[in-house]
Specification:
Largest sheet: 11 strands, parallel
Order of helices and strands: EEEEEEEEEEEEEEEEEEEE
Number of strands: 20
Structural class: mainly beta
Shape: globular
Mean pLDDT: 87
Strand content: over 45%
C-alpha cells in the first residue's frame, strides 16, 4: 500500500499463510504512507507456509507498517503460530504508531512477541489498550510492546495474558 488509506468497520475472518508479511487487514504499509484503521477486527489464524522457516512480520491487523499508523477502537482475535515479529495488532513498525482503545485476545508465538505490537523503530503511543492473549517469544516477550528502539508512551494500558517463562519482558 502506498499513499494514504482509511479502513473503517472492516473485518477479516479466516486463515493466512504469508511468508514475508501477513496481517489480518493489511500485509504491508510501505513508504511515507498514512494508514488509519477504525472500528475493525480480525479473527482467525496465521498458519505458517510449510516452505518457510517463519514469517518475519505477522500482526493481527497489520504485518509491516511504515509511515504514520493509527489504530482506534479495533481488536484482534487472530492467533499466530510462528513468526519472527508477532504482534496482536502490528508485527513490525518503522514510523509513528498511535493505538487507542484496542485489544488482542489471541495467543501469539514468535521470536519477538508483543501483546499489541511486536517491534517499533521510531515512536509508539498506546492509550487505553490491552492484551489478554497468551504470549510465547523465543527471544523477547512483552505484554503490550515487545521491543521499542524509539520513543514509547504507554498510558492506561495493561496485559493479562500469560507470558512464557525464561524470556525477557518488554514494556
Amino acid at each position: 500500500m502506498y499513499g494514504s488509506a482509511y479502513i473503517e468497520g472492516s473485518s477479516f475472518t479466516g486463515e493466512l499463510s504469508g511468508a514475508i508479511a501477513a496481517g489480518g487487514l493489511v500485509a504491508t504499509e510501505i513508504g511515507s504512507s498514512k494508514l488509519t484503521i477504525t472500528n475493525s477486527f480480525s479473527k482467525g489464524l496465521h498458519n505458517l507456509d510449510p516452505k518457510s522457516a517463519y514469517a518475519p512480520h505477522v500482526g493481527g491487523l497489520i504485518g509491516y507498517a511504515s509511515g504514520t499508523t493509527t489504530i482506534e477502537k479495533s481488536h484482534s482475535e487472530f492467533a499466530i503460530k510462528k513468526g519472527g515479529r508477532s504482534g496482536g495488532l502490528i508485527g513490525y513498525a518503522v514510523g509513528k504508531v498511535n493505538v487507542t482503545e484496542c485489544y488482542n485476545t489471541a495467543p501469539l508465538k514468535g521470536e519477538v512477541v508483543g501483546g499489541l505490537i511486536a517491534q517499533v523503530e521510531e515512536y509508539v503511543h498506546l492509550f487505553n489498550s490491552y492484551n489478554i492473549g497468551a504470549l510465547d517469544g523465543s527471544r523477547i516477550t512483552g505484554g503490550i510492546l515487545g521491543h521499542s528502539a524509539g520513543e514509547a508512551a504507554i498510558v492506561n494500558s495493561f496485559n493479562m495474558g500469560e507470558n512464557s517463562e525464561g524470556n525477557k519482558l518488554g514494556c
